[in-house]
Fold this sequence. Notes:
Layout: H1 9-19, H2 28-37, H3 45-54, H4 57-68, H5 72-80, H6 85-96, H7 98-113, H8 117-122, H9 131-139, H10 147-157, H11 159-177
Amino acid sequence: FSRLRFSGKKYGLMALLILQMFPASMALPAILGVAYELPWGMDNHAFLIIVMCGASAYNIWLMKGFIQGLPKELDESAYVDGATHGQVFKKIILPLTKPMLGVIFFFSFIGTFGEFVLSAALLKDPSMKLLVMGLKSFMDKGVATNWTLYAAASVMATIPLAKLFVSIQKFVATGLVAGAVKE
């Protein structure tokens, strides 16, 4: 969307903006309809990854803005040297987008990590349940909920996110501020 010119580009961008207005839970009936038709069923990691990545309108918009901030002179010089569109993307644009890909990965991971509605509806096998479903089980005891145990489990649940953030902090910091200074 950011480098190539094609018919329907304006309408595609408008569709992405409109898609961002709807919550992922609105697509649940359609997702369940497709899931029941699949031969391998819903209880596998591949299906869950596909569903979670399906709501990526925000990520596409974020990447589009980042790529628009890259200097077009890099593309033009590669075209002068005889590079194709695929080579420009693979050899120039993709390596430069690593910081933003790190940001998108982190945001997508956080969104998937804390997803409750889709995981409750899609995953039926107890061994496939996500962490949020385990946290919910602490509250299923009604009046006798042990809030101390629930709070401790919630804090423990943030440890993987904190470790992930520390490991990709460099990418997140550079990706979020990249393109913020106009030259």
